[in-house]
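Protocol step 4 of 6: structure prediction from sequence.
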Amino acid sequence: MTTDPGRDSEQNTGSDLSSMRIGSQADAGSLRPVKATRLWLFCLVGLACLLPALSTLWSAHSSAVHPDLLRDLLIALSMSWRAPVLHGPELAGILELGPLWYWMLSALFIIGLKLSAVLTVLGVLHAMLFFVAVLIARWLRLGITGMVMLPSLLAIPSWRMHDLVYLSHTTLTAPLAALQVLTVIGFVRTRQAIWLWLNWTCFTLGLHAHPSFAVLVLMPLSLLGLAIRWGALPIWKLILLGLLSTVPFWPVVYQFVMDGAVAWITQLQSYAASPGNLGHLGASLPLLWESVSGGLKYWLQITASRSSGRFHVLAVLHFLFVMAGLGLLCWQTMRKTADDSRTINGILLITVISSIPLLALLRGVYPAYMLSAASTALLITAGIGLCQLRWPNTLLAGLLLLVSWLHTSIAVELSQQRAIGATPFALLPAFDVVQPPMAHAPHPFLRLGDVPAFGQWLCENPEASLHGSIAIAKLHSYGVPRRIACAQAHPAIKAADPDAAGFLGLSRHTFPDSLIPVVSIGPFQLHPVDEVLLPGKTLSVALQPTPDYPPLTPNFGPAQLSQVPVPAGKNGYLVVTDLGFAVTPKATVELVCDGKPNLPARTDNVAWVFRLSNCPSPAELIVRASQPDYINAVVISGQR
């Protein structure tokens, strides 16, 4: 490969798609080969967008049910019959930027969309990322190389896939970051006010998607400096554009005025006073690695269910590839004379170079979704640099096939894991990517696509009490499945009620093969309960205009010991479930028979299944948990 600043490998076929007029006069004498070549190039660009976009839509529908999204859906559904809320999702325990996310979800429900259609809309919004990448390449005249390279780099599995595995408002961060880059190009090339306003508005919306979008602040600031330097817009118009771009913050300003500034300042001071909440520059290099290749290594290991040196080698090669792109763009920008292209490249480079230290200082912990904005801008910028090289079309096709295989195979594997309730899960590194990884265990997440079926079953069995891991799904759902399926919800969502007819629900991965389920709901299989050993009280979630978050009261105190006698002479199973998932430390569970521990027949991240036939004499269940009321233990006989 050799550098060629102004062109790429499409010199003979036309680097600009707008010049590809099939059957034009210029094609006389060699019409068929040129048509075939151009058609092949069109297909190449189309596949670069469509394959990851379709995979994104699939991932959105099989995304996991989690309290953040279901809380938001409940508020959005409630807004269709009561006054709109003026607050937004709470971030980091203290911060909220406004109700725009709630309003968008509510608008989708008000116009009559079902949950599946809402998920499709969110998937389409995220999939815009790949089409915006093609527009960026088109506007920068990067030809076929850029139109394939940019979306391919963004499709390589990264931490950004968490935005689809656990769908939420963070899903919108990456496409808004790509739009930021596009609007920078638009303003520098045209110097029109509309592009400046769009850039500032994208930044405002990006902050609503997640405050980590603030690491791209040099883009809107750079455009403001250029507008003043060029005299492109009068000061009054700049002020007007700034005010219009802050419209999404107006509900927060209103709430700030009504509540008073003292409470807000006190909360911020309390947050800043905690050492664990403050970032540090020492995390910059680890965050750079994680923003580029850490997620690729993570997903390869998770979906392959094993560690492999080959995965690390592939991640390192990808990291070097991206760093080479940034280096090429730096070199190309420095040797250019002052023009629009140099200005655009300079803005992108100073933004992505500063974004990693800013991200390191933003917070003391770095969940996967905090990397989306910085990673998206960094990969697009690196892709622009890589387009300074000549890339044969066959090599581009090979890159596209490799990326498509990686993206699709991982998405398919994750979907299959969720289908049986065996999604590998650990709090670390997903919720702090710079920390050493914890051991992953299969987790029984309910899929968002199964919410209507779950709700229909709840409507048909309103008095049934759920035990096992499906009880977690019910508590974390905030009543949304029932409200969607039968337009009603109890004032409290109950689970693990020892006084009601009960069903044990376990994932297909954990459900014993010897049992016959009475019903299957998505990844869960249900069986009648014979006896409830724990807990002694019903767990419930009160439904309020703004429901409590998280659904159960957290308790991260010291573990308490519980010892429960287990009767002898039973041939079924003892199933213990830690219903305090995500709000308490993981409990330790042990079944002791004749003074010896009895290993569980099946286990996952929240449940232990013990075969009672292995304990002919009386046994003892020993549980160590910080909140014993959150431990559920039932006995099932295996007979219907």
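Step 5 (inspection) to follow. DSSP finds 21 helices and 17 strands in the chain.
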